[in-house]
Specification:
This protein is mainly beta. The chain has one domain: OB fold (Dihydrolipoamide Acetyltransferase, E2P) (Beta Barrel). 11% of the residues lie in helices and 47% in strands. It has 2 helices and 5 strands; from the N terminus they run βαββαββ. The chain has helices at 19-22, 43-46, and strands at residues 5-14, 28-32, 38-42, 54-63, 69-74. It has a 3-stranded antiparallel beta sheet, with no helix packed on it. The protein has a two-stranded antiparallel sheet with strand order 2-3. β2 (28-32) and β3 form a beta hairpin.
């Protein structure tokens, strides 16, 4: 059975900085979880959360014991 780990973090990236996510110039977004751990998330996983404000919100990332992303959801 896979053990799941959850990370909570906030992002406030303006829309003007998000273009590089779509152009493939940025492969990963590095965030700092509430625990202080730095987490590298592939850009493809965060693109769906970009809106007119940019990449903004509070998120929960769930990974398995091999650090494979199981879920990434905006919680606020």
């Amino acid at each position: 059975m896979k053990e799941l780990t959850h990370y909570l973090f906030s992002v406030n990236m303006p829309y003007s900085e998000c273009e590089s996510l779509y152009l493939g110039q940025v492969k990963h977004v590095v965030v700092t979880a509430d625990t202080g751990e730095r987490i590298q998330v592939p850009s493809i996983n965060v693109r769906k959360f970009v809106d007119t404000r940019g990449l903004v919100g509070r998120f929960r990332l769930t990974v398995d014991d091999k650090h494979k992303i199981q879920a990434l959801v905006r919680i606020a």
